[in-house]
Specification:
This protein is α/β, with parallel strands linked by helices. The protein has one domain: Divalent-metal-dependent TIM barrel enzymes (TIM Barrel), CATH 3.20.20.150. It is built from eleven helices and ten strands. It has an eight-stranded parallel beta barrel with strand order 1-2-3-4-5-6-7-10, surrounded by four helices. Strand 2, helix 3 and strand 3 form a beta-alpha-beta unit.
């Protein structure tokens, strides 16, 4: 099987050597990359590196404000990059008023992006599955009030609920393109795959059954991002045996 990696996992390297970071994850064996910033490089230059290294961009984590500032420029950049999937990596949605404003904005922007062949999605953390102080539930509203694609982060879901992400993956399978496969300790501390307490094997097996691309996000940088990325890749390959 082929796997992807969120480049935030190697953020100790991307800011000073983006091409080197891409080469490092390609050398490990990853086939897909999900970007978390472009560090001032032109899309054409990054696309050249991807082609050279045999990598495919599976998506980008791009904030709503970055898209809003210039939708046409965002479309132009992502098309030049060869990317058809923009994922909002989080947003301040801690009350109903903010949720309403966000829903209104994404419902206007999403059709514009889709017309250009780019989907718009949302990546969860823990808070989206916990009630706001006013009782509003973020993820539930994003599901029924928008057509956003859903990128489930399996660790943050577990951190919020204490259970495997299998149920939500199966329920929202038609809205999901990619799954963040992640491990850690309840309470929020991230770990490389296989080093935490998350019900990781179930999340892996369910993602495989549903045919969803699994993207590693491992954030501890211990001892460094590339070493951690290799530990995660080795765990994934071991599950195939």
């Amino acid at each position: 099987m082929d796997y992807g990696i969120q480049m935030y996992s190697v953020r100790d390297l991307t800011g000073r050597d983006l091409r080197g970071a891409l080469k490092a994850v390609a050398d490990i064996g990853y086939k897909y990359v999900e970007f978390a910033g472009f560090f001032g490089f032109a899309a054409k230059e990054i696309k050249g590196w991807l082609d050279e290294l045999g990598l495919v961009v599976s998506g980008t984590h791009t904030g709503l404000r970055d898209i809003e500032n210039d939708v046409d420029a965002a479309i132009e950049y992502h098309k030049a990059l060869g990317n058809s999937r923009i994922i909002i990596p989080g947003h301040d949605l801690n009350n109903q008023q903010k949720l309403d404003a966000f829903v209104e904005k994404v419902n206007k922007i999403q059709p514009v992006l889709e017309k250009a062949g780019i989907s718009l999605g949302f990546h969860n953390h823990s808070g989206e599955f916990l009630p706001n102080k006013d009782g509003s539930m973020i993820h539930e509203q994003l599901v029924y009030r928008t057509n956003l694609r859903i990128e489930i982060d399996t660790f943050w879901y577990y951190n919020a609920t204490g259970i495997s992400s299998r149920g939500i993956l199966e329920r929202l399978k038609d809205r999901i393109d990619c799954v963040h496969i992640k491990d850690g300790l309840r309470g929020g501390e991230g770990k490389p795959l296989g080093y935490g307490t998350a019900p990781l094997r179930d999340a892996y097996q369910c993602s495989k059954e549903l045919g969803k691309l699994m993207i590693v996000e491992s954030e501890s940088l211990r001892p460094d991002g590339v070493t951690e990325a290799k530990l995660c890749y080795d765990w994934l390959k071991a599950q195939e045996k």
